[in-house]
Write a structure and sequence with these properties.
This protein has an eight-stranded mixed sheet. Strands 5-6-7-9-8 form a five-stranded mixed beta barrel. It starts with a helix and ends with a strand. Helix content is about 15%, strand content about 45%. Helix 3 packs antiparallel against helix 4. It is α+β, with helices and mostly antiparallel strands.
């Protein structure tokens, strides 16, 4: 009996060893980088000579990264350097023309560039700001990290939407986008000549953020290149809104895309849906960081279910309206779903473009 009891225990120990104990793969001729591989993860002890010097770090890679080659992992790893070793000297906010503000414009942010004397970031919750935070960022932080900072001496340029401040502390942020929230629908207006345009949104939900402020609608002067100017002379690239809704989005048709193929898929899909390169770039830059690390993404572009829950009234009446709204869901495995046909009307005359999206939690 005792032998029979020990058999499953020994088997379990062996199985755990196979799954969890990494096997050394030797070192690389790049300065001495070493690699260990287990069935569920990979360890890389980076010791790589590059044009920027010697890069030393130990990283553990799971999921899809576990199967990537050392060169593919290096491309990702080197992107984390930012511009360390360089000093940023260009003027970001012309402080002589601006006044310090106590406004809490900086919340949960994602690091986009790192210099020796500052770093840049974009808001995790979509807002039309670009942020520069002065000070030396410690080496524990990398490009792509999501953080929450405290800061002082904040300046805001309302023409360029540039924010500059001196950061005091940096800590990890675990903020996640909420299900049931329509994130970053942005509206572009392209008349054939400078035109005063009014836009009203009839939304079956609660608006949680708008920019410029939605006061029973937006009224702006739109130029053919898409530049928008309000009554105070303030300039915008687009109208922005965000809201909470109980609308149930349909994922029965769409696409199941490998996480690492998401960027290429979106470039192709958005072109078919009528977005130009600038619009598609802004769409991808916002959504890709949340999608590319997933094993798979189920993606479905909504039509009537979205446009009926968020009705737009534009005056004067546009000749072309294109509204792209993506509902998506992360998936651990491939899901076979009926493919959507993607198309868009030709952009002629006064054209209105909108894009947005939401993550659907399982």
């Amino acid at each position: 009996m005792k032998k029979k009891i020990w058999i499953p225990i020994i088997t379990g120990v062996i199985l755990l060893a196979v799954l969890l104990i990494p096997i050394p793969q030797g070192s690389y001729d790049d300065g001495g980088t070493r690699e260990w591989i287990a069935l569920t993860y990979k360890i890389v002890d980076w010791n790589k000579i590059s044009v920027d010097g010697i890069y030393e770090a130990t990283r553990i890679y799971f999921g899809a990264d576990r199967n990537k080659s050392i060169n593919e992992l290096w491309e990702r790893e080197s992107a984390k350097f930012g511009n360390r070793g360089e000093t940023y000297t260009a003027e970001w906010v012309e402080k002589s023309d601006r006044t310090k503000t106590d406004s809490e414009l900086i919340g949960h942010i994602r690091i986009t560039e790192i210099y020796d004397n500052c770093f840049f970031a974009s808001p995790v919750i979509p807002m039309p700001y670009q942020i520069k935070l002065n000070g030396e960022l410690s080496s524990e932080w990398c490009v792509g990290d999501q953080v929450l900072v405290t800061y002082e001496n904040l300046y805001y340029d309302d023409q360029t939407h540039h924010i500059e401040a001196d950061f005091l502390t940096v800590e990890p942020s675990d903020f996640e986008l909420e299900p049931g929230v329509d994130y970053k629908p942005v509206i572009y207006l392209y008349p054939e000549e400078d035109t005063e345009v009014s836009v009203k949104l009839d939304y079956s939900g609660r608006l949680t953020c708008t920019y410029p402020q939605y006061n029973d609608g937006w009224t702006v002067t739109a130029a053919p290149d898409g530049t928008l100017t309000d009554a105070n002379g303030q300039i915008y690239n687009y109208l922005y809104w965000e809201g909470e809704t109980l609308t149930q989005y349909d994922l029965t048709k769409g696409f199941c895309i490998n996480g690492e193929d998401t960027a290429a898929f979106l470039e192709d899909a958005l072109a078919k849906l009528g977005l130009n390169r600038r619009e598609a770039n802004e769409f991808i830059v916002f959504w890709l960081p949340m999608m590319q690390e997933n094993p798979y993404n189920i993606i479905s572009f909504q039509s009537d279910v979205y446009t009926e829950s968020a009705k737009l009234t534009v005056t004067p009446t546009p000749d072309t309206v294109i509204r792209v709204f993506m509902a998506w869901q992360a998936s651990d495995g491939y899901v076979d779903i009926e493919a959507q046909e993607l198309s868009a009307p030709e952009r002629i005359g006064f054209t209105v473009i909108e894009w947005g999206g939401t993550e659907v939690k399982q």
